[in-house]
Design goal:
elongated
Length: about 60
């Protein structure tokens, strides 16, 4: 017997608050673009991977 999925009080509050303050969605998009949606430099990523020095399994073992 399918029932309604549980929603936390926080989820309900945030959904209602965002319905009352739609401008916050634009603020969220701006913040996401600022902190997360950055262009990727594939050449720099490749160079960083190539310059990586392997770490010994046991850091303090000087015999390797």
């Amino acid at each position: 017997m399918p029932g309604k999925l549980h929603e936390s009080e926080l989820t309900i509050f945030m959904r209602e608050w965002l319905e009352q303050h739609p401008e916050e969605c634009e603020v969220k998009k701006t913040g996401q673009a600022l902190w997360w949606d950055r262009p990727q430099d594939t050449e720099a990523t490749r160079r960083f991977a190539a310059a990586r020095v392997p770490v010994n399994p046991y850091y303090y073992d000087i015999s390797h």
